[in-house]
């Protein structure tokens, strides 16, 4: 029975995606045409909203594994709240723009001289809706930003020269399934997620931010938590079809926003294709980095009940770490390594050139 449900689910996605193809051709053409207005923009501030793919230290130390050893062993050499062995997407985007990585919102009072570079409001584990963590969802993150504007921490001229990074990495879908959501209801839920994400993007731009970059959903079926069932050898095609649907809706929404903004204010950072490019090539297009087993994480629990960073009551490590994190694409069951993020950003270079 379960096999039949999966087949029906797969077929339904095929039907939906095929019905979108004709419309998407026009959307893609419109988006390419709109990119001409982005060139020449050099942001002086970066504001970040989203989840663990962008979080650089907002999660509570008592709550997140990102504050536990061995996270941060490559950079800065100790746990610092990043869900990786080192730098994450925010850091690489800031570096590409010639900016310092913006200070996490929770630490703003301890680095007042750093707010001039922007601010990072992203919290690991969150989504556009409430998820399985207690940290603020994206709407609340934008509320924090709006309050800083009201308090004149950032003025209109600051926002006119700023870029926003918005990440959405799938926590809403994980919470949906964990709370009893079914495959049959998933399609309508994906539409709800993208609709709310669109509201958030429009709101950030409406507050005065000149350019907004939003991530396409990465191939969830290629994350180690999905490939562990086949010894990290093959991605889950059914999961990736759901991702395709999400990204198709997002592309349509962003094209519409750009038509409304009359200035190509929105751009998609295509994590789906950039992840796939790196995973399929094993990073060899970089020339110096090769991920020999790209689907296998560097840090993983010694059983399915444990995660990277967990210890038992006596302090014994309940995880293992590979000898060379720089040779692994994934750090843990969900997040790339620093080397993985670097490879992804190199694969994104043509898109990044459009916002710089």
From TrEMBL:
GO terms for molecular function: hydrolase activity, acting on ester bonds. It comes from the Eukaryota. It holds the Pfam family Lipase_GDSL. Transmembrane segments: none annotated. Residues 1-26 form the signal peptide. Keywords: Hydrolase, Lipid degradation, Lipid metabolism, Signal. InterPro entries: GDSL, SGNH_hydro_sf, SGNH_plant_lipase-like. GO terms for biological process: lipid catabolic process. Belongs to the 'GDSL' lipolytic enzyme family. This is GDSL esterase/lipase. It comes from Actinidia chinensis var. chinensis.
